[in-house]
């Protein structure tokens, strides 16, 4: 996994969706951010799956796909921790009324869910997009061989 490319695609997609949601809300159309939370993960895994197939010219093994999914889950979890820390620093009053134990329980539950969803979705998309890319390359090569 190319961490730089993955993080760049992930963050760019997150920022782009944030701008899009803001623009839509200004136009009177409201979409909850949690309903599209996995889109950046999906797009980043899509890009990595294509790049893997083009570079290695083979389908990633199941082990490669799980390794990618677990690494992607860790990257997303770290980015979410950073975003949560920034939110806490910018808007600390939104956390008043929570005890430290409650806060820790919410954070751990959220991070666990983020990790599991990201790892499974990334693994599935990474491998399937690599497979689709290889099929498309084979079809393209067959068409070029006919001409």
UniProtKB/TrEMBL annotation:
InterPro entries: ABZJ_00895-like. The chain crosses the membrane at residues 7-30, 36-53, 65-91, 103-126. Keywords: Membrane, Transmembrane, Transmembrane helix. It comes from the Bacteria. This is ABZJ_00895 family protein. It comes from Thioclava kandeliae.
């Amino acid at each position: 996994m190319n961490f730089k490319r993955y993080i760049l695609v992930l963050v760019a997609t997150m920022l782009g969706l944030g701008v899009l949601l803001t623009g839509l809300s200004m136009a009177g159309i409201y979409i909850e951010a949690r309903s599209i939370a996995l889109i950046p993960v999906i797009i980043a895994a899509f890009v990595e799956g294509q790049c893997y197939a083009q570079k290695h010219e083979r389908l990633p093994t199941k082990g490669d796909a799980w390794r990618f999914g677990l690494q992607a889950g860790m990257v997303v979890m770290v980015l979410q921790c950073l975003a949560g820390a920034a939110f806490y620093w910018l808007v600390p009053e939104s956390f008043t009324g929570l005890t430290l134990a409650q806060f820790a329980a919410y954070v751990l539950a959220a991070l666990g869910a983020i990790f599991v969803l990201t790892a499974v979705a990334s693994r599935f998309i990474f491998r399937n997009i690599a497979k689709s890319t290889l099929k498309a390359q084979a079809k393209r090569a067959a068409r070029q061989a006919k001409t």
